[in-house]
Structure formats: C-alpha cells, structure tokens
Amino acid sequence: MTTTHYDTLESRSPEQREAALMAALPQQLAHAQKHAPAFAAILDGIDAAAITSRKALANLPVTRKYELLERQQAARQAGGGEDVFGGFSALRFGAHMPHVFASPGTIYEPEGTRKDYWRMARAMYAAGFRPGQLIHNSFSYHFVPAGSMMETGAHALGCTVFPGGTGQTEQQVQAMAELQPAGYIGTPSFLKIIVEKAAEMKVALPTVTRALVSGEAFPPSLRDWLAARGITGYQCYASADLGLIAYETEAREGLVLDEGVIMEIVRPGTGDPVAEGEVGELVVTTLNPDYPLIRFGTGDLSAVLPGSCPTGRTNTRIKGWMGRADQTIKVRGMFVHPGQVAAIARRFPEVLKARLVVSGEMANDSMVFRVESSSTQAGLDQRIGEAIRDVTKLRGTVELVAPGSLPNDGKVIEDARSYQ
Q1: What letter would DSSP give residue 128?
Q2: Do you find a cis peptide bond into 106, omega within 30 degrees of 0?
Q3: First vs last Cα of the chain: how many Å apart?
Q4: CA pair distance 29, 57, nearest whole angstrom
Q5: How far is the C-alpha of 374 from the C-alpha of 379, rounded, in Å?
Q6: What is the mean pLDDT of each run of 10 residues along the chain (420 residues)?
Q7: Which burial class, exposed, middle or buried, applies to 44 when counting CB atoms under 10 A from its CB (0-12, 13-18, 19+)?
Q8: Which candidate, 146, 327, 352, places its Cα nearest to that of 237?
Q9: pTM score of the predicted model
C-alpha cells in the first residue's frame, strides 16, 4: 500500500521515536512541576531528570478524570479566580489562552495559541483532506472544544472551514450544496442524517467524498453505508483533555498513535502496564506544555496491535475504543471498584490475574473472585476470601483457574446479574 504522510515523524524508526519521546519526557515533567501546581503536588519528591524510560514512568501515579474534576471543584469552591483548572493548566487567562471550554462534570479545559493546539491536522491528512480545500465542520462550537479542535487542525493543514455546528439539517444540506466542500467533519450519525435529508430534498452533494468522524462509535455497517453513497469515512480518537490520541488510516487496521503523546495500557484500577496485546485502560502523557497532563487515565479500554501500519506509519497501533475501564458497581449496597480488585490481587504474589464476577438477581447478589494462579497451595482460596472481606467489606467465594483462562477483555469486574 502506498501513501503519503503528514510529515516525516510518522515514518521514522520506532527506535528514533522512542528516543525522542523519552528525551522529551523529563523536560515535560519538570515543566509540569514548575508551572502546573497540581502536578507540583502529585509529583512532589520526584526527580524529573530520572524519568527517562517507560519503566520509570510507570512508577508515577495515574491521574484520573475524577481526580481532575475534584481538584477543579475544590479550586472553584475556594475562590480560585482564574485557576478554574485545579492547578493542571500552565496557562492563565489572557492573550495566550483564547478560549476556555467545558465538558460534562463540569470540567474546564484551556485552549492555547500554539498552531494546531489539539494536533488534529494529522488525522485530517490521513482521512484525505489536503491544503486548499473547504471543510464542512459539524462538531459543536458551543461549550465543548470539539468544533475548535477540528477548526484549528484544519487551519494548520491549510484548509478553510465552514462552521456548520450541530442541528439545522436542511441548512446544512443547503450549505454543502452551495459551497461544495471537499468533505465533512463531525459525528458519523449526524453525517448519515445529513445524507438522508439531502436525498429527501433531492439535493445532490457530489463534492462530499471524504469524512473524518469522531465522538461516537463508527461501526463497519455505517462506514459501508456511507461508502455506498460515495463518502469515504475515517475515524479518530481524541478527548477534550488530551486532543488527538490516535487516528485511522486507509489500511483500516486499528488506529495509529499521534506523534505528540506517550501511551501506556494499564490494568484498570492500577497504574501497572499490561502485557502487549492485553486489553487495559489507556493512560496518556501529553507533551503539550500548556496543559501538561502526566499519566492521565482516559477511562477507555483498548489494546496494542502487533506490527506496524501497512501505510508505512511506524507508530504503535491500538485496536480502538473497546469500552470503559471504570467498572465500579454496587453490591449489596456497597460500591466495589477495580482498584479494590487490584488491591486484593497485590496481596498474593501467586495471583497472575483476577476478575470479580457478580451474579444473581437484584438484591440477591453473589460474588465470585476468579483468579489465575501459578500456585495450587492449599488454603490460598481461603486467604484470598479473607482479603476480599477485608478490602470490600463483603463476602465472596474464590475460584482458582489455570493461567490464561480469564478473558482478554480488560474487565476486572463483570456484572452478570439479571435485572429482569
């Protein structure tokens, strides 16, 4: 497969990329400690200069979205003024921060003035957009950063943007018919609605032949539905906190990581990296100095794909979004979360992998702690059972299984109860 790339970073050797990322990592950590008060506290006592490998990085704490929200809420309640970001932003209000956005929570995110601040141009290029084109952007410009994320990426690519935003389907069709954009950016479901509305109105959209979609699932069935109508759609994975994380290429074999992030996949509820190919939570360290998130837990599940992309892009590939890592559930009136499962497993070196299965009917819950173990030592199940009660304050039975028996789906808590 032949393709062109957005820049030479995409085709450098994995060794070159890793060396560059590990050289940038201690600088980013030191910058975060100095300019982002939250990370000054989180990384207190850490020698940034010593964090030059993935092994060293894995020893740093993971910051999850709920912790970011808690720090933001505390800062606001304390009358934090312009530090509504809970100490995570290295920027303050003014010329270097043209926008502040809001995500559900409410979590506030800063936008800086750096070119392609959210690093979206790379995904657009992979989706087939080129300089000099007009792009119809139907992501929201209201509250959330999605519209601006795509617009700033398009400008960095050298494209003009029509800020369509959401809703007003007939007007969207009219604008597409009259302006004749090279393609669409937005959610895949809204593109389907627009295409159906255009057919209903008997309006042709001959120039809309490519699309970059995100924000929701893009199943093969919808991809094929669009292709049958002359639109080639690709997806990207991004967040309001981190910007672009990974993007699809014409190979359609997983998603290629962005060049500006360091990605780890950890066992849910912990900061411990899993073996390559195993499903776990995506944890991302961004090299954005304005909003320097270090080991930020996305809460999303994925896994690394072996090998490199047939397009010649050499960065790591992931399978894409595979569900949520936050599997917290309530059992007999008590919350049980993945961190507790991990805490139980850590007490026993013989435990290779653990999975808590909750079954039964509502109000009649039954907990089974399934454990892959390297040992058949007598009494191990009893000791694990005691640890379950100690950590969760609930009783559960223990089932020892052979190594490799538990599913590779990233779940450490499985809710198998019947709600009929």
Answers
A1: T
A2: yes
A3: 50
A4: 10
A5: 14
A6: 83 98 98 97 97 98 91 83 86 94 89 97 98 97 94 98 95 98 96 96 98 92 96 96 97 97 94 93 97 95 95 96 82 81 93 92 79 87 94 91 92 79
A7: exposed
A8: 146
A9: 0.85
